[in-house]
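TL;DR need structure tokens for one chain.
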Amino acid sequence: MLVLVACSSGQPSAREDQAAKPGVQQAGATFYRDGLSGVDFSGLDSVQKERALQIMNGNKCACPCQMTIAQCRVEDKSCPKSPGMAATVVNAIKSGQTDQQIVAALNGMRAQANAAAGPSQPAQPVQKVTINTDGEPSLGKADAKVTVVTFGDFQ
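>> reply
TL;DR here they are.
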């Protein structure tokens, strides 16, 4: 699930005493402003930088970490996916793309990463289990190849 966060103000919301910290708490979630390893914001004005930070803090990385792109750049500097995703955000903002276009590009990167990872491990065969259902209520043919048994507790 992706969340697109739009920025309506060009000024960062962090107070002066919070600016030195990599993450700033906002409404229960950490918003990462500083310490984004390898992210080059040069060429962006303050409004564009805030927009990039909003997008990076609102969208997940393509690696299995389940962190946002910004969080991944701060907490996992060795991640192979988030540097490219962060660069995509910055370059897209520089080229005038909309937030929706940027998020679509990030979705594509995530989909590509999932496809490259290959299909998930195949399910292991289930061992046959025999359950005595004699005298129990049932539906269907008694000689069916598969019997589904449902246990329920209605208390």
